[in-house]
Amino acid sequence: MFTFLQPKYLSFHVETVKDPIALIKKIKEQGIRPSIAINPETPVEAILPYIEQVDMILVMTVHTGFAGQSFLEETLGKIKELYSILSSLKNPPLVEVDGNIYSDTIQLMEKSMPDVFVLGTSGLFYDKNDISYKQRIEELRQIIQTYQ
């Protein structure tokens, strides 16, 4: 496990774990906040038994493992459904998205703006403008703030 690194959050894919409750407990015992991830094909229902026990839910907007994939717009419905469910909770977990996240895809999420965005190739290197990472991140922050 990666607990020796003492990350703030540790995500696991619900599809890969036999006993999510046990893993959530182990993560918490290490003083780390658990985060549960779901792939594009996985229905939100698969994580419902665990949403009140995790601090964050990671919605994959591409299939894991391959950079440069297209954003799967069908995941927008999943994000919206997730927020609808979370709105009834007293202390809902954060919602994070990962996969082809950049200015255009952030704008697609305007009605269900996630709390956390994972920036990779698409977010930092998506065009040939010669601007710094700091400038790129500031540009993305401004877009996000427009919709909050």
Give a verbal description of the structure.
The chain has 148 residues and is of the alpha/beta class. It has helices spanning 20-29, 75-86, 103-108, 121-125, 133-147, and strands at residues 9-13, 33-38, 56-60, 94-98, 116-118. The chain has a single domain, classed as TIM Barrel (Alpha-Beta Barrel). The longest helix has 15 residues, at 133-147. The radius of gyration is 16 Å and the shape is globular. Pfam families: Ribul_P_3_epim. Keywords: Isomerase, Metal-binding. It is an enzyme of class 5 (isomerase). Its EC number is 5.1.3.-, 5.1.3.1.
Q: CATH first level: which class? A: Alpha Beta
Helix content: 25-40%
CATH topology: TIM Barrel
Principal-axes shape call: globular
What kind of sheet is the major sheet?
Answer: 5 strands, parallel
Report the CATH architecture: Alpha-Beta Barrel
What's the β-strand tally?
A: 5
CATH superfamily: Aldolase class I
Secondary-structure element order, as H and E?
EHEEHEHEHH
GO biological process, one term: carbohydrate metabolic process
Keywords: Isomerase, Metal-binding
EC number: 5.1.3.-, 5.1.3.1
Protein name: Ribulose-phosphate 3-epimerase
Task: Give a brief rundown of this model.
The protein is α/β, with parallel strands linked by helices. The chain has helices spanning 20-29, 75-86, 103-108, 121-125, 133-147; strands at 9-13, 33-38, 56-60, 94-98, 116-118.
